[in-house]
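Marked as duplicate of an earlier ticket. Keeping the data here for the record.
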Amino acid sequence: MLTRVNGPVDDTGAAVAIKDASFPAPFASGLEYAAPARGTWNIVHVGMLIPQAHQIFVCAQGCLRGVVLTAAEMGAQERFSTVAIEEHNVLEGDLEELLVDGVTDILRRLPKRPPAVLIYTSCIHHFLACDLPLVYQRLGERFPEVDFVDCYMNPIMRKSGLTPDQLMRRQLYAALKPRPREERTVGILGNCFPLEESSELMRMLRGGGWTVRDIHYCRSYAEYQRLAGCETFLTTFPAARAGGEALAQRLGREHLYLPGCWGYDEIGRNLDTLAEALELPREEDGEAVERAEEALAAAHRIIGQCPVVIDYTATARPLGLARLLLAHGFQVRTVYADSFSGEEKEDFLWLQAHAPELTLRPTVQVKMRLLPRQRPEKTLAIGQKAAYFTASRFFVNLVEGGGLYGYDGVRRMAQLMLDAYLHERDTRTLIQVKGLGCGCCV
């Protein structure tokens, strides 16, 4: 039963010192709060990466509101349509007919037939056992020139199996058709941002004579299809790993998972793996580490003892980043995350031993809506949710790693932190923009 909150709210259940925290889920799951920090990409943004593709969402009108606004905010209305499910469709059991006829009507009205159509079915299709294979069979018969991709707007499944984010990154490449293998080509999959060209990984690939393909470089559907010819596929973002493995298995290719991280030892191992797998020359790490160390030292000289807070939307390894910064003298006080991946176990244990009072806070626990946000002192936030929960106007506006990778990523992060510390930002305005940087999709 809901009760009115009167007076201050304590943070019991919404804060824990890492020394007392359990791994990988330090907080109980329950009723959730969504902070108005909207820079992370959703399924609409990710799907728009397929050039010339058209998206069709099939759901009740109330559920369609968010995705419609996403398409409108990114100026992609011409690539987006909806089919609304009404009560009589449920009662009459004609979901299959509605889906086929609705998509057919949309495609016949478009000024130009798209080469691919992403159809997002929703929770109700699965609740009512809609015959989706039959739907796609009929659509394929009506429009043989169109590649139909089954996508999902199904938040009820986000805590079992692949999450909606993982599913979308997998389906992003589901339309790729088998083609001959092209030697010395590598496809980087599943990132919302292309990796920085200055990163060691990219410099190794370019310097070793490998052609790098990425959906971000594709400007046509034909270019997108060339991704299927890559000799090797590579993923760096955890949510993209399952999709990379599935595509490699389907096309009979090799797959490398080299996760973005902040620890020098792991960065070195990733680069060693890349060099061995692709027979690339391996540069010594000394100079790259030195540049990273110089950037961290330069940032620390200015930032000094300013409290630092980090959230999981800025990086898939928030504990790894906290460890790096604490080891270099930065005053990391809080990490905002609801759970952690198994990849962070080593960093979690290190922090328990070396920074036992580091505070962990959730982002979806309902008390986070009411707990005080103002801080008595200037706070440097890394990530939009960290900035929101601390009301900081000094923050690194970064989501999902922002293309940072390797030692070069450490160097760039230090520079971003220094810039954020020195330049006040309009946090309220910036964090309300959906899908930071997704304008490149259109």
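See parent ticket for discussion. Residues 286-303 form the longest helix (18 residues).
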